[in-house]
Amino acid sequence: MLAVLTAQEMQQADKAAIEELHIGETRLMELAGHACLGVIQKTLQKESLAGLSFLVICGKGNNGGDGLVLARHLLNLGATVDLILLYPESALQPINLEALATLEAYRQHQAPLRLFRSHNEALPFVAETSYDVLIDAMMGTGLRLTGKETLLRSPLSEGIELLNTLRERSNARSVAIDLPSGLDATTGLAATPAVMADVTVTMAFLKTGLYLNDGPPLSGEIHIAEISIPGFLAGESPALLLDQEFAAEQFLLREPRSAKHTNGKVLIVAGSQSAESSMVGAAIMSAKAALKTGAGYVALSVPLALANTIHLALPEAVVIGRDLSAILEKARWADAIVIGCGLGRDKAAIELVRTLLSSDEIREKKLILDADALYALSEGDTITLLSQCREVVLTPHYGEFSRLSGETVESIAADPIESAREFAQEHQVTLLLKGSPTVIAGADGTVLLNTSGTEALATAGSGDVLSGIIAALAAKGADIESAAAAAAWFHGRAGDLACDVSSLVSAGMIIEAIQPAIQEIFEQEE
Fold first, then answer.
1. pLDDT in tens, 456-477
2. What is the pTM of this model?
3. Can you tell me whether residue 183 is helix, strand or coil?
4. Which pLDDT tens digit goes with each residue over 68-104?
5. Is the N-terminal amide bond of 155 cis, ω within 30° of 0?
6. CATH number of 244-525: 1.20.210.10, 3.40.1190.20, 3.40.50.1000, 3.40.50.1820?
7. What are φ and ψ of residue 56, in 5° steps?
8. Is there a contact between 390 and 364 (Cβ–Cβ < 8 Å)?
9. Domains of the chain, residue spans
10. Tag placement on the chain: N or C end, fewer CB within 10 Å?
11. Burial class (CB in 10 A: 0-12, 13-18, 19+), 98
């Protein structure tokens, strides 16, 4: 899995590379510019850039220096380059002035380079020029936003607006070096204006801001530039980006001589029925998802009046009632337990959750608490019972997490990684915070990010499906954090495969796509 760093973590890695590994700033800048060139060639699918036209807009910091170096490499491959310096030379760092002097020397040899020393100087010329690629080298990872709307000042605002305008009016592709200018590298919040990139070439490591809030729509296709900053400089516990390989490792195949009781036994306490409503569907979807993910044995605890409905929809499942002794007996038998899907929010349901979490038979098992169980946790002091659970994952969306944590939805959205990490450590649980991306935070401070899936998952019952997938993987042997993370990946991939039109996907379609999502991994390995 790839490390995903905050701006501060990246700054520390840069500093360590320079001070501890003696990799000079000039060398880092040279490597950054050359790596960007490679991505551009790959994106354009061209080895030769002769005859292509580039606009490079540079700021005054290291990001601008990367752009200056890239401009030289583009010229070396026969491209035509227009370069805009947004700031006067007196504002540039010595390392940037050195790169600029090299370009000035190129001009003496009739290189196809026009150099403009301000936005205003460039405007009459670039407005009449057709470009193939627009390069954003204005800001990089230096911007820090607080969550309030931030308006960037001139000349940065003018440079960003110029690039975006040229992109909109032509077929030119925009490439951001390290990060789209105007985007916070940590939170993914964007200032006004911000660069709309088709491609982002990020230096050394992925940045959390690329995946949060405004990051995904602004960043486009993301590539990592290898600039000789080794992985061991990423810090002690950076967030990690989930991948297919990790998910595959958590799915344990059945042994040839195994039996149903050795392939994962799941108990699901879910579903409810009253004079006003029925939520048996949630129980059915969770159980069906567990079976589709390979659980050997699934038992459902529902009001016995719903037993026939369960048997008709899911003949593979065993049904028990809501008698506490029967639930605890099955809990002793189970490898993983789901509580909450469609359980209801009345006093009886809340008291049932409290009673179950107070029972040794329950809290010694791998627990998945979802939906109405999360509501129960937020009532009174029920959440304090989590400290006695051995392995537990909570699966809230932002609204549910707001109720659990006391934070506003807005503050959670501004920094979901830290919000999830702090909660998980405080309560010693695994927290799976549903969203884009989904954040899986462990009790030890580890954070995994899942980006599989699309808006296809935004449908009623999707969370019930996820809980069933987690339960099956945990029951089959994965620890609760790994099971939650892998389940998020499979869940997202199933959503992708469910239908070509994401807006038409239902939870039932996601369930039917679980097996193809898992199967394609093993087919690829063959």
1. 999 999 999 999 999 999 999 9
2. 0.94
3. strand
4. 999 999 999 999 999 999 999 999 999 999 999 999 9
5. yes
6. 3.40.1190.20
7. -115, 120
8. yes
9. 2-239, 244-525
10. C
11. middle
Angle value at C-alpha 146, between 141 and 151, nearest 5 degrees? 75
**Considering only CA atoms, which of 180, 141, 199, 138 is closest in space to residue 9?**
141
Element (H, E) at 224: strand 221-225
Closest by alpha carbon to 484, among 525, 427, 426, 443?
Answer: 443
Whether residue 219 contacts residue 197, with contact meaning beta carbons closer than 8 Å, is answered with yes
Contact call for residues 213 and 409 (beta carbons, < 8 A) = no
- Residue-wise pLDDT for 274-311, tens only, equals 888 899 999 999 999 999 999 999 999 999 999 999 99
Rounded distance between C-alpha atoms, residue 72 and residue 113, angstroms: 9
> Among 406, 272, 293, 262, which Cα is nearest to 339's?
272
- Pairwise CA distance, residues 56 & 83, whole Å: 5
For residue 257, how many other CB atoms are within 10 A of its CB?
6
Residue pair 437/417 in contact by the 8 Å Cβ criterion = no
Task: Tally helices (H) and strands (E) across the chain.
Answer: 20, 19
Task: Give the residue among 189, 153, 181 at the shortest CA–CA distance from 64.
Answer: 181
Q: Are 145 and 184 in contact (CB under 8 A)?
A: yes
Diameter of the chain by CA atoms? 89
Residue where the block lists tokens 């995946």: 211
Query: Chain-centre distance of CA 299, in angstroms?
Result: 33
Each residue's pLDDT tens digit, 10-62? 999 999 999 999 999 999 999 999 999 999 999 998 878 999 999 999 999 99
For residues 9 and 234, is the Cβ–Cβ distance under 8 A? yes
For residue 88, CA distances in Å to 96, 117, 159, 405 come to: 12, 7, 14, 49
Dihedral of CA atoms 421, 424, 427, 432 in degrees, nearest 10, equals 140
CA distances from 259 to 232, 247, 256, 453 (A): 43, 24, 9, 33
What is the pLDDT at residue 445? 94
Q: How far is CA 53 from CA 78, 158, 221, in A?
A: 10, 21, 21
Contacts of 127 (CB under 8 A, 6+ apart): none
Q: What is the CATH number of domain 2-239?
A: 3.40.50.10260
Lookup: tokens for 236 = 């002690």
List, as one string, the DSSP characters of 387-451.
GG-SEEEE---HHHHHHHH---HHHHHHSHHHHHHHHHHHHTSEEEE-SSSEEEE-TTS-EEEE-
Distance (Å, rounded) from C-alpha 48 to C-alpha 439? 41
Quote the crossing angle between the two packed helices 462-475 and 280-292, to the nearest 10°. 40
Is 525 a residue whose pLDDT tops 70?
A: no
